[in-house]
Amino acid sequence: MADKLTLHEDPRSGNCYKIRLTAALLGVPLGRRRYDIMKGETRTAEFLSLVNPNGRIPVLEIACPDGVRFLPESNAACWFLAAGSSLIPDRRFAQADVLRWMFFEQYNHEPNIAALRFWLAFIGEANLSAAQRAAIPAKQVAGEDALAVMDRHLAEQHAAGRGWFVGAALSLADVALYAYTHVAEAGGFRLRDHRHICAWLERVAATPGYIAMA
Ligand SMILES: N[C@@H](CCC(=O)N[C@@H](CS)C(=O)NCC(=O)O)C(=O)O
After folding, report:
1. pLDDT tens-digit map of 10-28
2. What Rg do the C-alpha atoms of the chain give, in angstroms?
3. What count of other Cβ atoms lies within 10 Å of the Cβ of residue 73?
4. What pTM, to 2 d.p., does this model score?
5. What number does the ligand 1 atom closest to the CA of 43 have?
6. 184: Cβ below 6 Å to ligand 1?
7. 66 in helix, strand or coil?
8. What are the tens digits of pLDDT across the range 79-131?
9. Beta carbons of 201 and 178 less than 8 angstroms apart
10. Angle, alpha carbons 166-201-193 (nearest 5°)
11. Are 6 and 33 in contact (CB under 8 A)?
12. Whose C-alpha lies nearest to ligand 1, atom 13?
């Protein structure tokens, strides 16, 4: 019997969307349990003890005959879903290269681009703490740097006749980076300054099985 999969999520989160997009591209059914992170629903004693001691979504719940397991961290959940599929290349270097972009996404991209989107589009600049307001300029620069790295890499791939982050096919590297890049303008970033990113966003959205975030 196949594992029963449930995503603990807030639908506004790009980290959660990555997992839904991975499942959709692979045709894997995914149940959904919703939380409102603005109301602290992932910080309750029950959530911390049962679902994720780190107090955050997404968490992929995997129910199999042996019992139920909870897998936090978006990219780990995407990897779990995509193991053995075309979203993870066969070759060892290419697999590591996919991981390289997924780590880049978590270290250089998401903490800047997703944070600014969340602060500006959901919390609102007027409601930010002094520390958050003071952190905006550095996040703008670091987020812009991440987009520039992506655009340069896609330009090199384009010159080599390839349209994706790793090799010649869509992989989890593209899925992970797509989630917050395609909504980066909500964080104040100008995507139209990055023409290779814009063309790549269109390619991802045209992939069979693609679902939109909303
Ligand atoms: N590295 C984690 C980041 C998880 C994360 O930051 N989740 C946010 C929403 S995108 C959250 O749950 N925030 C609620 C909170 O911190 O209380 C991942 O990739 O899953």
Report:
1. 999 999 999 999 999 999 9
2. 17
3. 17
4. 0.97
5. 17
6. no
7. coil
8. 999 999 999 999 999 999 999 999 999 999 999 999 999 999 999 999 999 99
9. yes
10. 105
11. yes
12. 56
